[in-house]
Amino acid sequence: MIARVSLEIALRKEFDYSIPPGLAGQIEVGSRVQVPFRSRKIYGTVTALAEESAFAGLKPVLKVIGAQTLVTPKVLKLARWIADYYCCAPEIALKSVLPEAVRKKTETEAGWRKQLFVRALPVSGELPKLSKRQQDIWNLVEERREILLTELVELAETTAATIRKLEDRGLIEIAPQISERDPYARENILPTQPLPLNPAQEKALEKITGAMQRNEDRGLKMGDGRHLTPALSPLLTDAQRGEGETPSPILHPPSSTFLLHGVTGSGKTEVYLQAIAHALKQGAGAIVLVPEISLTPQTVERFKARFSSGKLQTLVAVLHSHLSAGERHDEWHKIRQGRARIVIGARSAIFAPVEPLGLIIVDEEHEHTYKQEEAPRYHARDVAIMRGRMENAVVVLGSATPSLESYYNCKKGKYRLLELPERVDNQKMPRVRVVDMRQAAHKEKGPPIFSPQLKEAIQQRLERGEQTILFLNRRGYSTALQCPQCGFVAECPNCSLALTYHRPEQKLRCHICGHSENVPAVCPNVKCKNPAIRYAGLGTQKVEETLAKLFPNARVRRMDADTMKRKDDYRKTLGDFRTGKTDILVGTQMIAKGLHFPNVTLVGIVYADLALHQPDFRAGERTFQLLTQVAGRAGRGDVEGEVFVQSFTPFHPAIQYARRHDFAGFYEQEIEFRGQLKYPPLSRVALLTLKGRNEDKVKFSAEHLKRELERNHFVAAVYDRRQSDEKIATVTDRRYKFGDLIISGPAPAPLLRAETFYRYQIMLRTRAMSKLSQQLVKIIETLALPEDVTLAVDIDPVNLG
Ligand code: ADP
Ligand code: ZN
Q: What pLDDT score does 519 carry?
């Protein structure tokens, strides 16, 4: 037998190896193996098995890693789709489907943590005479039967050497043993029961479970193994498993992808929970994706409380970047072994080996963090939909502010729209007031940080003992150091960006590359040396400082990347806010999401235009989403909430529609704008970025790439007269159209220089992205670039910077 292996070094090729007799039967598709390559031994994944190879003199596979295949055939198929669609080497796609902690630590049991445990041995007859200290230790061990050595040392306030004396006397045994890490072991979670649903929730759940039922029936026919699994959940009764029901006839299976559009607090999570319960009943598992930032202990707790505690004890595994490598390893294997049936995690949890998979939930589906910003540049939401399709699983995308793409797909009938238009508690949406800062600036000779209206509103809250959240999506003190005399602006030496002033440390910092330098006392321009340098623009530090001046008695806390450096900072700051130890919380987008604080009755958005000024066709959409999310933080309790949006462009549609909580209205006007300019969702974008340290070379390479793209498409166009006519017609407007494809650029990236690299971009727009991806792979493979210029291909980019 021959094994075809994709190697971990990016070669875009697979190699055949012979399977030696000693390993026969141990290697399957998806196995991780070690193979010889040139003079090295490297790791790879088996992608196929064959009877024979076209090559002679094959080298043998050296060893198989792990008893169980790590990449299941289904996940392997998904990785292949990623490589094809996102134009990356298959090895890179394969690498991303396994957490590093799993990939690196799979030889035998090395990944499991072994720790020394102390165990009581049976005592025959009288206990030998022990010292007081030894007796204490013995009592503890006997009571616990088995205890971690380190824990015992701590509990008995003793040393390992003293404990070993008991071992010498034959009373106890100290031996290494696998001890599974549980990142949530310390939490004491109270079980919850399903809530009776309101009519809107009920209807949504019915549609979702209906689709799950149809998928199960189809799966039974296709033998996807789902019918085998109820044995794995012995705690369920036959009735719970839904046996004995007659399968409904399948005529035209409608889409299994849903968009659950529900305002914040409308009870989306409760719908997820009950849909998951249905999946478990079917003997299937579920994956829940949440953005990294909202993967707070409270979120995880809600899922654990429903499924992991009490009688059911279905394990919920958690995968995210704050876990230690060891914890991640253990959580992953709990899933692979089928012990954990529900996975909750950030982006890469979409690759979790849940088998069979009945349901995928993507919460806050509009979030940009679902897009990976390095190869493979996949979008977890889109991968989820593809995986759902491949494995017959239902996919539920949830959001209060759906992405234009998903809403558009509903309008086109590709997804089904489910709506939860009202808050569960029947509370009104907060009242949103837009403050025209041009007037405030006029009155005060220069823009103030707080308009009189917002200032007064904060004052009121302080008097009433209610809480306030102030939002500004920019950290630091001031955005730029500027000399009023010569116009000098302090810029980063590595990036084309002004440095931000950080007052507490008295430093200027670059928010792209992290460069930092001391604050100059005089203008650094040698010809100027003006001692009166000024700081322009504002960041969260300045907001915090201004608050301290205006409201000296208020307890203010700031929450941004600068104050949230340690793992526990986030939890502590929010804990203090929740318990009322803080009056005003100032923060960046960190505070925009998913937090419930009943006593918050005021939210102030200090400078709403910030997101609008991004050079990105999604700037309006982002602003709308951000305002809606932030506004959703107000009035979660008994008192109606109030939101102040300070803006210099108060009549911008993104601000006005957000003010009226009108998603559909925003969608209608935004989709028209996108259509006119052929931007997504009415097309798909591929962004090609060339980067290098020599600007001329980068520019030249970009032009060369563009010619290659044109040449390639020209060949296709000769066969179609109409299309080549179109080429002639549009050749003058600097954009070349060949049929459906629009090529624009090359142009300098919005941030031309980042981390010492110059970047030029070409943007491609098409409706047939899969086809374009195929062509791009071919072009990339033959493209000759100078050695110090690299090309990055980003399909469906969310960050155009
Ligand atoms: P969303 O996820 O849409 O923001 P949640 O699911 O968090 O909304 O619901 C908000 C609050 O309402 C939660 O405290 C939740 O427990 C509660 N809730 C949800 N559904 C119901 C229901 N049917 N009856 C009573 N309370 C509910
Ligand atoms: Zn920089």
A: 86
